Amino acid sequence: MNSRQPGSSLGTSLSSWFSSPGPASGGGELKLAREYLYSDSGLLAVEDANATSSPPADLAIWRPSTGQWWTQRSEYTSQVTVPWGASTDVPTIGDYDGDGKTDFCVFRPAEGRWYLIKSGSGDSATTVIPFGSNGDVPAPADFDGDGRTDMAVWRPASGTWYIRKSSDLSVIQLPLGSIGDTPNPQDFDGDGRADIAVWRSATKTFYSVNSSDGEMAFTIIGMQGLPVSADYDGDGSSDYAVREGAVWKIKQSSDGAFRTVSWQEDDDIAIHNDYDGDGRVDIAAWSPHDGKWHILQSSTGTERVEQWGMNGDIPLPALYRR
């Protein structure tokens, strides 16, 4: 176990896919089979159909009090600290330049702007993109399947998704969801593109629209909680999943069976990702009390424990590799 940690000083159809106005706020080759990115309590994946392996995720936290990111490579060979963001920002990491590495990014709700450091351009190259408005919920994912994360926001007041496609920079808008829902974009149909989706805890149901055919899907999980959807069975399609307290309930896309797992404490934070590099997302929880990562490795069924972070931090595991 590595005991080091950062110090305290430091809609119903996709017919509108190709045309529609954006939100009112102004205007490389991949080498991974699937890059998992943890952003604002949601997991997203960037696909590469030509790759055959998935490196294990790095440990990382963002410290709102200082705006600093602390990352540690999964094999412990290096640590990186990057100052980026303010206390009121929302971390929205993703692979926005398609180089196979996670980019540091935050969404600033008060301004409706995304502040981005592209890993392929060096830590000194920054980009500011106005997209969204105050009250929007950032929901980035690879919606067009080009291997790059697309900036996207979900507007609760209208239930509208605004997606800025990285492939051609066009903006689309799609209706799905209502106030009280939680956006949960994932590739549920396995076509290499993220599907718009929301989790409605009150009805214990996921509502999603398949990017492959535009059909609406309704998936009842049978318990309330927060969405933790990801590809836990490694079949290339995300599994609908919810965590309520310490209990995880997963509907496996491979066979439709439900899997229920109790893992760690009720107030821990879900940090599911592929930590052992076997192509399957591992159930994992981060304790804000002591900064410990508790990972249930899918390859062996054993627990891996790491210490990285402290109370007040936001855990954001992904593939940074600076």
End-to-end gap: 23 Å
CATH class category name: Mainly Beta
* CATH architecture type: 7 Propeller
Q: Give the name of the CATH superfamily.
A: YVTN repeat-like/Quinoprotein amine dehydrogenase
Q: Could you tell me the number of beta strands?
A: 26
What count of structural domains? 1
Topology, element by element:
Blueprint: E1 34-39, E2 42-47, E3 59-63, E4 68-72, E5 79-83, E6 90-91, E7 104-108, E8 113-117, E9 126-130, E10 137-138, E11 151-155, E12 160-164, E13 171-175, E14 182-183, E15 196-200, E16 205-209, E17 216-220, E18 226-227, E19 240-244, E20 247-251, E21 258-262, E22 269-270, E23 283-287, E24 292-296, E25 303-307, E26 314-315
Antiparallel strand pairs: 1-2, 3-4, 3-26, 4-5, 6-7, 7-8, 8-9, 10-11, 11-12, 12-13, 14-15, 15-16, 16-17, 18-19, 19-20, 20-21, 22-23, 23-24, 24-25
Keywords:
globular, 4-stranded antiparallel β-sheet, Methylamine Dehydrogenase, Chain H
